[in-house]
Backbone:
């Protein structure tokens, strides 16, 4: 899995970077029709890396009533702070998009409420 290199911003408070990527992600109970598109800004906020942006994909859903399949946009705004202490164990300053995915609560239920 591809990771996001945050070594440069970890060194300087206030440093930031923008990440725009498409990443295939495995989800439990939901089949995504396309990779998750991430548009994120990561900022060193001192004791945390602030992650702002959005995650977007399309889910393949089956209607419980008529059993017809359809596609549903899945979108989630992200505003998270990940403590640098939590990142200390990461190999050479890389952040896994899977970690962002789980931190953000990106799931079908939350995206369609």
Residues:
């Amino acid at each position: 899995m591809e990771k996001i290199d945050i070594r440069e911003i970890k060194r300087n408070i206030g440093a930031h970077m923008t990440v725009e990527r498409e990443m295939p992600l495995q989800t439990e109970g939901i089949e995504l029709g396309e990779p998750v598109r991430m548009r994120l800004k990561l900022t060193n906020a001192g004791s945390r890396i602030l992650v702002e942006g959005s995650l977007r994909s399309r889910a393949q859903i089956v209607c419980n009533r008529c059993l017809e399949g359809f596609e549903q946009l899945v979108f989630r705004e992200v505003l998270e702070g990940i403590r640098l202490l939590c990142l200390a164990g990461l190999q050479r300053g890389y952040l896994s998009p899977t970690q962002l995915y789980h931190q953000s609560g990106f799931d079908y239920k939350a995206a369609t409420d």
